[in-house]
Specification:
The structure is a single chain. The protein has 161 residues and is mostly helical. The protein has one domain. The chain has 5 helices and no strands. The chain starts with 6 loop residues before the first helix and ends in a 12-residue tail after the last helix. The mean pLDDT is 90.
Length: 161
């Protein structure tokens, strides 16, 4: 049984978190650049779009790496005594986060390079909103475990075990 996450798993978790935060915070600039590209085509001022794309591709690559590690190395079990419904909610939340961490870059790449405007709207509107909501729930759950349940769950993402 895996006692904790590896250093690599922890590093990838925080790297992905920072990259996603960067792209979410600066996504409005990408929306403006997309409109500019549609109107005038690529110009030197569309460099920010490439930064957004490169960060998105990095997220996709790191998430793939995380999934390989999750399958090959495993992940620690829920803390002893965890309510089965809480465990189910945690598992569902992680599955949804992984799905969105894959869907966001894929839809963005297909919209940008394939010209699929509908996927661009899906990427920038629905998936972005869902990702913000799930990140909020993920952070709230980590704080709940740490402050109220005091079960050490949050510490697993701070120190390799």
């Amino acid at each position: 049984m895996v006692k904790g996450y590896s250093r690599t798993q922890i590093a990838l978790h925080w790297a992905v978190a920072l990259l996603i935060a960067f792209n979410l915070i600066f996504s409005d600039a990408m929306s403006e650049l997309w409109r500019q590209i549609e109107q005038t085509g690529p110009t030197p001022t569309t460099t920010g779009a490439w930064v957004h794309i490169i960060v998105g591709v990095a997220v996709l690559a790191f998430v793939a790496w995380r999934l390989v590690l999750r399958v090959t190395r495993g992940v620690p079990h829920a803390p002893a005594g965890t309510n089965p419904l809480l465990k189910l909610a945690g598992d569902a939340g992680h599955l949804a986060l992984y799905a969105l961490m894959i869907a966001m870059p894929v839809t963005g790449l297909l919209a940008f390079f394939g010209g699929f405007e509908t996927l661009g709207e899906l990427h920038a509107e629905l998936l972005k909103s869902l990702l913000w909501a799930l990140i909020g729930l993920h952070v709230a759950a980590a704080i709940y475990h740490h402050v109220f349940l005091k079960d050490g769950l949050l510490n697993r993402m701070r120190k390799a075990g």
